[in-house]
Design a protein that fits this description.
The chain folds into two domains: 92 residues, Oxidized Rhodanese, domain 1; 145 residues, Serine Threonine Protein Phosphatase 5, Tetratricopeptide repeat (Alpha Horseshoe), CATH 1.25.40. It is built from 14 helices and five strands. The chain has a five-stranded parallel β-sheet with strand order 1-5-4-2-3. The protein starts with a strand and ends with a helix. The mean pLDDT is 91.
């Protein structure tokens, strides 16, 4: 067998890869009702686009309803030269079962909060407008209590929204040091860069969030990244305390 089987429990880790491709080969109505975050409906255009990426050899996950038809499709992709092809074991049904099980374990407060905001409570990593996940939204609103419950239930801290900002970014936005520490503790990527090339550190410096800057630097945030305009965190410092704090760190780098 030229492809590998992937259990539903491993999907969040798979889709967190920046170059991951997920193909949904179910019918369009099923896809429209619900699909794995980031998945695209299989079509001639999608396959053509994938073929253009063949030399980059991205990891590809294929799923259908029950994991049967996707085996043939996975085998086809492997035959075309892709070396990292995965078939979702049990298909959408298995993924839905895992998500429902996780949702059932979500504490009542977090469940009610997520439902009121229009999230699919059957999927911990579901999205609303601008690709915002439950965890990103909790971080933006400064809800450390909700974020803690979501993380304990298995929410992915490294999903990004349509602007490629992760939950850590929104914790910086809300200026909530406890949230920052919580997300870092659960593996949040302190060096994620958004569509403009800005990291959490660059944003925190530009917003004058001294406490956030210190937490990020203490957590090992990389000082080197720059925005697409060529500005690093030191260049972006908006207040004197942030500038004075960052300057010796850059001098020592």
């Amino acid at each position: 067998m030229a492809y590998q089987n992937l259990p539903a429990q491993a999907v969040p880790e798979f889709i967190a890869q920046p170059d991951a491709v997920v193909l949904d080969i179910r019918d369009p109505d099923s896809y429209a009702r619900a699909h794995i975050p980031g998945a695209q409906l299989s079509s001639d255009a999608a396959v053509t686009d994938l073929m253009r990426k063949r030399r980059l050899d991205p990891p590809v996950l294929v799923y259908c309803y029950h994991g049967n038809s996707s085996r043939e499709f996975s085998d086809l992709l492997a035959g075309l030269g892709f070396t990292r092809v995965f078939n979702l074991e049990g298909g959408w049904q298995a993924w839905e079962t895992v998500q429902n099980r996780r949702a059932a374990q979500l504490p009542e407060a977090a469940y009610a909060w997520a439902k009121a905001l229009g999230f699919d409570t059957g999927n911990l990593n579901s999205r609303i407008a601008n690709g915002m996940s439950m965890l990103m939204t909790a971080a933006k609103d400064g809800r450390e209590d909700i974020a803690r419950e979501l993380l304990q239930a298995g929410a992915d801290p490294n999903l990004v929204n349509d602007d490629e900002n992760n939950a850590l970014w929104f914790a910086c936005y809300s200026g909530h040091g406890g949230l920052l520490g919580l997300l870092i503790e659960h593996g949040g990527n302190v060096n994620n860069q958004n569509v403009n090339g800005a990291t959490c550190l660059i944003y925190a410096a530009s917003a004058g969030r001294f406490d956030a800057v210190k937490i990020l630097v203490d957590a090992g945030a990389n000082l080197d990244p720059t925005t697409h305009d060529g500005f690093n965190a030191l260049d972006s410092a908006a207040t004197l305390p942030v500038l004075k704090y960052l300057k010796p760190h850059y001098a020592a780098a």
